[in-house]
């Protein structure tokens, strides 16, 4: 218990410092005190009033850095929470939010929006189509896996693989009929990135992601019971099927929202929850909050590193999460294999 009283404040400190660094560092560096002065000025807080700041710094902070950082925090938090729930539902540390075809469905929706030229009419068409595609993928996966009112975990995993392969083939087929410019647009989306995020993306993501996270936090006790197994859960009077399906849908929709505003970003929902489980234990009442804070912090950290490592070139956050997440994933595979011996 003493460990928890130290761990969560430390996690919040890391969250604050990384967010502040993300707002400060870039092609135009803004000193920390200037950022705090602008934030206090905007919130009408009488602090740092004697610290001057320029209109250029104000424009960079409010119109470029802040939306980008907020989208990163929202998407990372949503993926972290969804990954923890998925790993709990499947009782598998290698499970992640894209395991039942969410990412593949979002890719189909995005490529359809690009192929039809809808992205030239409004920035909202691609995320809306991506969200619809992800929702379709989840529905199809659950429909294929359900038998006599039950959803066996292994069948659900296999259905997710099959649906992902089908939707991946559809995406490839549509790409062969697109011109080079539209293919490049899809490529930038599918790699995953936070560049060019605006306040519209923040407003699009904040409701569904915060709502999904809130529901998952409220269901933490029920998830603890589900992890014990179907027999134990039924013994305490829990209707296993409705709760598992409900949590699966909430986690999938939260993931879909994150994917539709940032593109496909891997490893956050896989690495962060497992790492937090090693630090705070398997109790989802602690694991979910830790995964939420750490997920947002990790994604913003990856984005910040991608911006400053090779200036003026920016490495997209989807690449950075893969670079940092792959070694840990290989370690996780090796550790899992050694434990099974």
From TrEMBL:
It is found in: Cell membrane. It comes from the Bacteria. Belongs to the binding-protein-dependent transport system permease family. FecCD subfamily. Signal peptide: none annotated. This is Iron complex transport system permease protein. Its main location: membrane. It is a multi-pass membrane protein.
